[in-house]
Amino acid sequence: MHGILPSLLVAATLILTASCQEDATGPDDLPLLDTHWVLRQVDGKTALLTEKGAHMPDLTLLAAANHTRGQGTCNWFGGSYALAEGTQRLTISEQGSTYINCPNQNLEATFLLTLPLTTHYEITGRTLRLYDDEHTEARLTFEAETK
């Protein structure tokens, strides 16, 4: 009987540890899908709007049909994404967008060029971080916006 209890405790610990590693989001973390994410940082620097009337870029990954949608500083965009089940692997397609000629679209261009480089993500609370395989720091950081 003395050998069974320690064995059960070890087995339970291993099972709990393994299940924690599969899903790195905590109970207070927002879901990746169907959440409206607003850009806050690009490569660790605060995203700033330089033009009056510009829109802070945002992104929503729609659970239905694996579509993306959002708005850059000026233009609307959309595309697709793929998730590897049970991991935090995420790929995002190049995004098709409208082509309204707005002044100084540097932030929008950087945002739309960086999205398809995404290989994985992390969510902590209301913050989404997108990473590529080339950098250890998040390329794009978003905050959830509730409407």
UniProtKB/TrEMBL annotation:
Pfam family name, one: META
InterPro entries: DUF306_Meta_HslJ, HslJ-like_sf, Hsp_HslJ-like
All copies of domain DUF306, residue ranges: 32-140
Name of the featured protein: META domain-containing protein
